[in-house]
Amino acid sequence: MNYLLISTAVAAIVFCLAFFLRSKREALEENQGQGIGTSDGGLDDLWREHAASSALSGIFSSEDQQFILAQASEQLTALFRRERKRLALRWIERQKFASAAVMRRHREETRSAADLRPSSELLLFFRYGKLRLMFEVLAVSVWLVGPEGLRGLAARAHAVLRGIENIRALGGSKRSVSF
Asked: What angle do the packed helices 118-145 and 151-169 form, to 10 degrees?
């Protein structure tokens, strides 16, 4: 009996993990297909920031879901939930791609830096690790329960990403890293 229970639990975990990785891969492929993060212009950065903020408030909101539940059929509600999850996972993948791009540029710039401060670099590394962990927790949470109600965690992850971008913009001097 215990063997059956354990093997069923292991099979369920493997199935859930495979489904999650498939969903995540689809979101990543969509982002790569659209060439996310290829421009470096200031106006593009402002537009990207505005788009990320408005997407954050829309995707992780429960107001649309309440409206759909009150007005739509079961089939439309299921479609809405599925697409909302897909959008949320796509937003998370975009943010992860943006954070990786920031760190990649930072590594390239600091290779030739003469005034490198190891303590600041270590703090930046830990903050980046925290950000990646937050994105993974957010992705698993979205996959398990949906994006509704996760606006706080998504906003926190977005704020940490903006903080890392601001630290990198300081150019290595007077870096203050706060968690």
From this structure: 160
Q: How many CB atoms lie within 10 A of CB 167?
A: 22
Which residue has 């993990």 as its token pair? 17
CA–CA separation, 33 and 28 (whole Å): 9
Contact 93, 27 (CB under 8 A): yes
Question: pLDDT value at position 44?
Answer: 55
Biggest CA–CA distance in the chain, Å, is 65
Both tokens of 86, joined, read 């897909």
Burial (CB < 10 A; 0-12, 13-18, 19+), residue 161, is: buried
E strand map for 36-166? none
Q: What is the pLDDT of residues 116-127, one digit of tens each?
A: 788 888 888 898
Residues 6+ apart with CB under 8 A from 53: 158
Reading phi first (left if > 0) and then psi (alpha if -120 to 50, else beta), residue 37 is in left
DSSP 114: S
